[in-house]
Amino acid sequence: MASGITAYLLYEDGEAACDFLARAFGFEEVLRSHSPEGRVWHAELRLGDGVLFLGEPAHGYVSPRRAGGTTVSLYCYVDDLDAHFAQAEEAGAEIVAGPSDQAYGDRRYHAKDPEGHEFFFAEHVRDVAPEEWGAEAAD
Fold first, then answer.
1. Least CB-packed of 18, 46, 106, 110 within 10 Å?
2. Domains of the chain by range and CATH?
3. How confident is the model at residue 139 (pLDDT cuts 50, 70, 90)?
4. What DSSP state is assigned to residue 114?
């Protein structure tokens, strides 16, 4: 098996998280498993070739929103950034920053889900050599 990395986010309300991530950000649900008490033990969602795991922890967990800070930021590539942004905005995602071109060649926007997890969605629009990033950002 090839090496890889998959984010595993924790949510106070896993049911709502799965539904929101699909509706707002276009994640496709692969599976959703429940505990005997009805909590989301484990869910798997796909966005393009990427996979996101999520679940509800048993004790003591609070979401980033309730904790008052950021615990993680995810950077996700999509095919049509502007259409993706419109979908997220329509579904009620908290938009931190709208679509804009970045010095390193991506067009991206920044959003949060209802529990405060941060997502950057991007589309690569042009190749830029790393040594050019600083000069371009200063313009």
1. 46
2. 7-58+70-138 (3.10.180.10)
3. very low
4. T
DSSP 30-87: EEEEE-TTS-EEEEEEEETTEEEEEE--SSS---HHHHTS---EEEEE-S-HHHHHHH
Cα separation, 76 vs 73, in Å, equals 10
What does the mean pLDDT of the chain come to?
Answer: 92
Q: CA separation (Å) from 98 to 60, 83, 84?
A: 34, 12, 11
Could you tell me the sign of the dihedral formed by the alpha carbons of 66, 68, 71, 76, in that order?
positive
> How many residues make up the chain in this entry?
139
- Asked if residue 136 has pLDDT above 90, the reply is no
Could you read off the pLDDT of 35-71 as tens digits, one per residue? 998 999 999 999 999 999 999 987 788 889 888 888 8
Contact 122, 98 (CB under 8 A): no
The pLDDT of 73-98, averaged and rounded, is: 97
